[in-house]
Amino acid sequence: MDTLLHARILLTAEVESLKTGPLDPRYVREAEHIISGESYQLVQQFVDRFKGKIKISGEISACSVIAALNEFLEIEVYEVGQENEMLFLAIALLQTFIQNNYTGPAARLNAVSSLFSKTGNEIGAISKALVRSLAVMGQPAYELMDDPLYLVLSLLLLERITGQGSLFSVSQDQEVPLPVISPDSTPGLLAVSYWWWARALLTHLSLIPEPSGFQASVAAAIYQSTDLAHAVIKDLPESVHEDFKRQLYAMYYLENVKCSLAINTEHLCLPSLTKVKNITNFEFVMTGARATRTKYQQKAHAGLIIIAKSLTFQKFAINTNSVAPETFALESDLLLEKPHFESLTDEPLDEQIYSKRPKLDLGSGYEEDKLLPLALRQENIPRSLLDLDPNNQPNLSDYDNIQLLLRLYTIKNTTPAKDPLVEEELTALLSRILYQNGEKNWSIFARSLWERSIIETTKAKTIERGLLQMQSLVEELDLKIKSKLIPNSDEINVPSRLSYIHQLPFLPRWELDATLAEKYMSLGILKSAVEIYERLGMVCETALCYATVGDEKKAEEILLQRIKENDSDARAFSILGDIKQDPSLWEKSWEIGKYVNAKNSLAKYYFNPPPSSGIQPNFSATLKHLNDSLRQYPLSFETWYFYGCVGLQCGKMQIAAEAFSRCVSLDPYHALSWSNLSAAYMKMDKLKEAYSCLKRAIASDAQKNWKIWENFMLVAVKLNEWEDVLMACKQLVNIRRDKCGEGSIDLPIIEKLVELLVTSEYPEEPEKLSYFQKSCTEFICNTLPQVITTSARCWRLVARVELWRKRPWAALECHEKAYRAISHNPDLEINEKVWNDTVDACEDLVAAYESLGEMEGKYGPDSLVCKDWKYKCRSTIKALMSKGRGRWDDSPGWDRLVEARSQI
């Protein structure tokens, strides 16, 4: 039953029904406090009980504070067999920290001054030491956060409950054992503890500028498989309804996606998003519909829309009756508040979408296994969605709204910034969440408003509303700002704000404010941006702000002052090194904090030194620095990719193969990584491995990358995989024909394919052609003639195939086209080589007339291929001689033409 109670806490589900069961009533009350957003009451009880109990011996530092906390937990708090009670405390501490720093309004408890037996200035020093203890790999945690003690205590408790050892005491050179969770042998309560530990670690990571360190690896290990959810569910009572278990699985997959986004492995999101979509039976599709967007628009134009409907978990979340965030109308004289869509059945959808995506293959129909399932035709929209009114769609469950938001974040992280089509897709996603009637969860609705504002501040007609909305959302978190637009505090529903905080990517209140500053900076409002950064105490961001606008001297002054005040800020050293391009500063950053970006900057510096440095590229140093970086943070896809590229460039194929193998394990759909891995294998003479990698590359998103297809073709030739060679040839022609014309044809490969084809026997009945014969014939005889312009050699290859097909009349036409292609060369009268090549082509055509002219023609036994072939032979020779007369009369080619004419 304890596992059931904690499962309900995970889901923020009601626990009223458990009061009459065998559970300790005290635990049920504590669970109610956590679920109802009153975790601070448990924290207050804890503070009151242990007031003044934490004693620090010696100088106050991050190490001494952590040591004192560990000693306090060991002696006063932690008891073997009381893990359940400790878990309640850890959860309450974490939730209170999140309320104070992420959702608001803050619950002020002053725990530091109460728990530590220190007074006055010592309390301030302890708070600073606690912040320093949360630094990761040289990156300091945000220094002005509220109550870091709550997060530190929560992490320490969860480390003790799970028995994994403390990440606070691990040196940067040590290996950290990753958690192993068994679906059968791991107790349910321990699995819940791991789950909360992962949540706390992601909270910790959100406090630093860039994800790195052991925290990311441990969180990823906990969320890496469904064993976490299996271990919890196996210990639930048999009476638990199946829907409750499905909710736990849905929650797990949503948090799995959040973890991937948090540690920059967003390429792993799609499988989990697909699974949670199936669990919740969520139906949605992106399609096209005509819409009016302005007040005076007479004709509707094509636009993108998300059609969606929820089928389960409609009434799952509790405490949804919250006041929605303050929203602002556009109040535009031109734009409508929201687009007005015409009915989906008014016009064929392919016509509507085509104007938006002219390159789409409209025959592909419904693409479901995408971040945005796409219906290209009317009949491809699921029947259950087709009848929905696009202007008044039904409300979605909170789970399904979160899915849409997570898909939005994944798209943002995997697509180019400010791409107009991507922004239209994101706007369609946000519109589906925002334009719903009825009750709205504060967290989901506020996050959607925030993301819409990010997009709107890039457009002139909506920038005013976007900035005003961002300012309002920042203020609603109870920041101390002069002008206030937030609702009264008695209207704030804390449970609603906390209910989905662990499923949505973390956005601390200072990050929201910093994003607003970025917007000001992008608009050239430098003073306002700097004011926000200074108020937030973000010294490095302030310096970057000045550096971005070209005032590097001011940026250097700010960073030097920061280093003077805090000589352990590895990030400040590294950014100063980036500005000054000084390797010694990067070395210092690495020395004091093992800051990964410092090593990455060193690697780039030695890979491509600036001209002022006077040094040559040093690949060995580059590889060494990248290796150091990856040992500290092995989840960085970009660093592995760079590592592999350097290995390829300097001929270290083992390193390249290892690096790109790690890349494809992090992102199995990255075509360039598969291609580069194949290149390394080819250099190592591992053709079969290279071939397999290239097959994965072309199966990934590489349909327009001609270089990958060319490599695939060359390796397939070496392995005699002729069907794949043919497929690659076709794809290369399709990709390159518009830019390169007949340059897209690889003649030696085509000649080999033709040789293989014509040496086989043509069947009596065409329908008995093998797949290779049919496909090759179609390519040679139908595709290539559309591409050939001047290549006589290509036309002769087509002629060979036509003759093999027992179509001599078509073969003769190809020979004629081959001759015309070369005889129209303008250099014929000035270049003897061109003259001789033309004479050769003329002799080939004459020979073709002689050998094919009297064969059975196109219209059966009573027809010939060319009845007057002798006349055509003489006419062809005569025309060529007239072109060469007076210039090539004494050449060997002229004599050959005379000889040929006499032979007819």
Automatic annotation (TrEMBL):
InterPro entries: TPR-like_helical_dom_sf (IPR011990), TPR_rpt (IPR019734), TTC27/Emw1 (IPR044244). The keyword Repeat applies. Pfam families: TPR_8. Keywords: Repeat, TPR repeat. Coiled coil: none annotated. It comes from the Eukaryota. TPR repeats lie at residues 637-670, 671-704. PROSITE patterns: TPR. This is Uncharacterized protein. The gene is SMKI14G0240.
